[in-house]
Amino acid sequence: MLASLSFGAFADEAQECQAASGTLIVGRVVSAPTFKHGVFRKGVELSHTHLTLRSDTDGKDYDVAVDNVFASGYQQGAKVVPAPLDSIEVGDALEACGIPFAGGMHWVHNNCGDTPTPQEPNGWIKKIAADGGIGPNLEDGQRYCYLWSHR
Description:
Blueprint: H1 7-19, E1 23-36, E2 40-41, E3 44-45, E4 48-55, E5 61-67, E6 93-101, E7 104-106, E8 124-128
Parallel strand pairs: 5-7
Antiparallel strand pairs: 1-4, 1-6, 2-3, 4-5, 6-7, 6-8
Protein name: Putative signal peptide protein
């Protein structure tokens, strides 16, 4: 249960997200991840996985847009939620560090080693275990970083 997490763990993660130029939302998944097509960049589809996260802080539902190219299981041309994002289920506790927008959040992925900025944070999406342990970034792939210029 999230209630068993210590305030210190949340504070540390919030500070880490702020240092990465992002905003942290912690909550529970209320709608399963779904695949959404995207635009193409250099021949690679920038598809997304969308899920709804209910915030533990304000109780609001947020549409989280997750860039599939940063997931380790992303396959060009596949029209499915890639691994490890496909392991996310309704009821899972997650934390998302990224850029909020009205009703949602995006940029919940690493920034390919660039210096984080508010427009390009070094974001993440992580599962929170029942014992309060925080898992690895599900969006830490860098295979497709060549699609963007770097500073």
